[in-house]
Amino acid sequence: MIALMAKPPTPAAARAARQQAVADVRRSLVLQAARSAFFELGLEGASLREIAKRAGYTPGAIYSYFDSKEQVYGALLGESLERLNACVAAAPATLRAKATAFFDFYRENPRDLDLGFYLFHGMQPRGLTPALNTHLNARLHNAIEPMQAQLVALGFKPQEAQTEVTALFAHIVGLLLLSHTGRIRMFGQTSPALFERYLDGLVARIPSSTRGKRHARGTAP
Full-prediction pTM beyond 0.70? Predict the structure, then answer.
């Protein structure tokens, strides 16, 4: 049997592929430049002109990819949330593993945590369009959802699971902020130890009927 050979791409298709590859590289360079500018100068201090300078482009060239620095920020945060979701998805299907994957992602990548707070002025997020803000919040919720699902599987009622996962999220964020700012040293504590302590308390709140069944099977939450 004669194998069919794939047809070579047309000149137009090959040209389009090259142009897309170049655009992807340039967009990546813009994002790298923006990341460094935001980390060094903050969202308020960084400008499209500064980002363009670091990327080696003119400000006008950046408008081919992004309409504003807030849109650049949104792209960076979106990429960060995709990596977070990948880490949580790869963790074993247990409450402790999913929660630890979430916690460790931000503990080991403090600048990704910083990204999540750059657009806050006072207590209100600003700069993102409603659609982009909704999309980013949904991706963050996707990373939290596996923990809530595990709580339901462990016997918590859906509303109780939502309350517990909200408290867990708040605890994680608080610990990370204390750790990344160095304030946790005031208390002579470490964030991993305090996180494990909180998880132990959460596991202890698992409904007794479910806990007994899991103990009999030799499985851990």
Answer: yes
